[in-house]
Target: Lysine methyltransferase,S-adenosyl-L-methionine-dependent methyltransferase
Amino acid sequence: MMDNTTVEAKTYTLQSEIYREMNADEEHSVDADDDTFVIKNVRSVFRFKCQSMQPPNSDHFSVDEDGDLIVLRSPFSKAIVIEHINRTSLNMVGMQVWRSALLMGDFIMGNKNIFSGDQVILELGSGVGLTGIVAAMYCKEVVFTDIDNTNILSMIEKNIRLNRDLIVSRTTVMPLDFGEPELSDVLWTKLRDVNIIIAADVIYDNEITKQLVNTLKKIMAVSPMKTAYIGMEKRYVFSSVDLDVCAPSYEYFCDLLKQNNWFQVEILDCNFSQYFQYNKVKELVILKLTTNHSM
Ligand SMILES: C[S@@+](CC[C@H](N)C(=O)[O-])C[C@H]1O[C@@H](n2cnc3c(N)ncnc32)[C@H](O)[C@@H]1O
Model:
């Protein structure tokens, strides 16, 4: 399925909304197991704003020689290029780009004071690496991690190379599977320097969520100075038990965090500037986790 080979698939596959939004002219079928889809490697260009979209403040209006207002353009003058797959099975969703990756990208760009300078950032479930690449535009080092799958880890490396002109930080790519009982020695060595953890769209399967929370506990125990920012999309479904809509994966994650009483949890206001072009739906959230010092 790699290296631009095109294959036909008849397994259950799904496609990220981001890909659909960016390729509105392409024909998209709904997720189903009874159809044939073309699965291929693609490159997507994620343009982002480099200057404020805010209308000019009245104190700073500029006019031309005729006295007409000079309208400030808001150029999407830079872009991150990401190679990924256009649709995948559930166990390979990391080979696509998901909305939360762009939300976390916006969050990082809008909070450069948190992510710049000497920060060493660990990304969990990096997928094809978009969020980590944004972080690598500002901080000292980014450690990209995901399950030990050659396709995913080598795709992150490829995307780092594709965007090397934007990247200022040192980058490392290594396996980290939340399901593994022990973290590798190499990872432990790296963790000593990490002070920020980021993750986008890793809350969608309760078993993975449980393992993620245990992994966070292990990592954050190394130094209480670590802060984790977990971006996700609350995916709503109708519950026949409650006869109402609910976001089961998100609720399971919040319940686990509460049960543990190990983390201080803050739900961040996501009303920050949007730098990337995507549909920033209201279901997107970021949780900020710090360790509970009373423990
Ligand atoms: C929905 S994708 C999100 C990818 C990327 N962060 C994004 O937002 O575009 C979920 C990610 O979690 C990773 N993942 C799933 N199970 C995992 C595990 N047990 N350990 C580490 N990562 C895992 C997947 O490989 C995938 O990269």
